[in-house]
Amino acid sequence: MGNKQKQKSALEEISIRGLGVIESSNIEFKSGLTVLTGETGAGKTMVLTALSLVLGSKSDSDLVRQGAERASVTGKFAVPRSLAAQIVESGGEIDDESVIITRTLSAQGKSRVLVGGAVSSAASVSAFASSLVEIHAQSSSSKLTKPAVARELLDRYAAADLIAYQSVFHQYHELINRIKELEQQLKERDSQLAQLTEFAAEFSKVAPKSGELSVIDNEIARLGSVEQLNQAVTTSLNLLENEELSAFNLLQQVRKGLDQVRGKDNSLDQIGERFSENLLNLQDISSDLNSYLSNLAADPNRFEKLQDRKASLNSLLKKHGKGSDRLVAFEQLIIDGQLVKEKIADLSGGSDRVIVLQKEAQELFTKLADAGFTLSKQRKASAEKLASAVTTEIKALSMPNAKFLIQVSTADGSNPSNYSAFGLDEISILFAAHTGAAALPLNKVASGGELSRVMLALEVVIAEAEPIGTYIFDEVDAGVGGKAAVEVGRRLAKLAKNAQVIVITHLPQVAVWADNHLVVKKSENGLVTQSDVIEIDENQRKVEIARMLSGQEDSKTAQTHATELLAIVRNS
Predict the structure, then answer these.
(1) SMART domains, per this entry (predicted)?
(2) Residue 43 has pLDDT above 80, yes or no
(3) Residue 197: domain span
């Protein structure tokens, strides 16, 4: 693949244990177009299920293989720098430009997620998963009918600058809310000013600091329990270090016993090394306990000062705090204290202040209207280009008279209430299956197979500008055969020039386009084991394509047909 691919993510490997019919399997993925084929029930779709679990989908204990305690799936992805930063920010760990995500699912329904060894959650993974892999099963194609998805696809194609628009949008709404709040407060200005001034004075006098309450609570708890702490640590140290009978003496004897047979059995030597290491750890703990004990001292003056400070903070919190969670209310109190002077200035300025803010809001609205107009103009121009390019693609996918349209409906820009965080536009995808048919919303006129092909056509058109590195298609070839199936394969191969594409298929006309061909087999016991997902060479592909064509891999006619299909790809 070219340079562009290096800027995108890629699925390198997936390891599956105890999931559905898969007992144990490790599958490596390469760049280009990879197809997964195999007999019905062999576990092809379970590979997709495994990947969905790794990417944060909802878990189900029914997926754990019968008789197994847990299912475990690990996916390894190469990630570009921009995405790596997002993963690290969410608490994950990156190693050598790759991220390893592990999802474990117990038979009792408990789920655990690790991102590069760091404990994470399915929700955290979901947040960046859509930038790693785009999965298309026939069911997921229906998302095209949602206006938000249609808008997102168009904006991706148009490279629309939503960030600039949203910055102005949020500034404008924050200012409008501030004006509303001020107008409301002006109705009760005198009492509000008195309350705010009193709060400002008390806040300034106490001067609370963020996180202070937790620190004080902890130190008071420690100073109030010095005797108990002293006794607990002293008793522990006596048990560890007592000259007559100590835990260390007994453990040293164990170590000596193991040392006497060192070199006689490697496995016992390893246990002995672990024991010695743990003994050193215990000695470190003993040293830490001694250090802790030497620093532990009663400090009645400090204790009294902390109690007084805590009382002051609690008094301020009780009077001016909001909410039942004490620590959250304390942090909010500090924020309120930092903003109180500004609020007093707003109220003191009275109606004059409202006029100034309204003028600012009007200026911001002009900026918002300009940004909204630019966004709409950009979308309309790109909608025509995208619709035309997708229509060209779907004509080749056995829908020669179909038409794909993107409708951009723009609300009145002079009305502030018409603006949303995504502009003034509502985006709809319309579809006409044949000449003369009215273009209607996609979900009303397209069959499941047509929806899948429309999604494929869209992805082929958008892929070049798309940061997503891996596309996975399952059942994208549903409802097609013959020449149309060959064209579906051709489009998938075209998409694979800009991204890694993995396709689960039962159609030989699609499978022949593969750069890499994996076959999933079932063992005699009905399970997929380590040796049952294999990459096949050119000769083996003829046999597999023949099986897909006729159900009989040794059929000479089918093998001749398979050779012809493979030749179509070589010559195209």
Answers:
(1) AAA (SM00382)
(2) no
(3) 170-353
